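User: Hey, quick favor. My workstation is busy. Could you predict this chain's structure for me?
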Amino acid sequence: MQVFFLAAAFACALLVLHAQSSGTRPEPSAPALPKEVKRLEAWVGTWDAEVEMMGTTSSGSETCRLDCAGFWLVTEHTGSFMGQPFHGRGLTGFDPARQAYAGVWVDSIGGPMSVFTDGEFSADGKTFGANVDGVGMDGKPGRFEYRSTFPDARSRTFEVFQLDGAKRELQMRIRYSRKV
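Assistant: No problem, here it is.
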């Protein structure tokens, strides 16, 4: 009986190997990425960061990569905030139902996540903007504008403006230089 099971297992293994190597079945291909998703490539890479916030300047590093078959941008930022280590994570993608970019941001400061659902690139692809629900420096819920500019492939700038009615006040600016 053992010989029968051993022979059956061997035959199954041969069939699996043959099916894998025969090349008769085409490999499933990933869906083509829409042009809106391809625009996220502007962020991809490793960046040195100079952070200006609350009258101080600090340095950090950010790594951005595409994940989930290239549909989502994953952002990982490390640095310091008020003398303490800082870690932040973001996820950005294109929502075809809304025809807009959507994303979330969480970090080690401990506040609730920041969320946007209306992000868009300018026609020339050099500016990205989104309105964000988040928490202000006072710990209270607030409305913000995220603005990223891409003057060239080696640099970018990220700014956060707090919105209060018609008032728009710069809260933070990060200047990035591409490392890789």
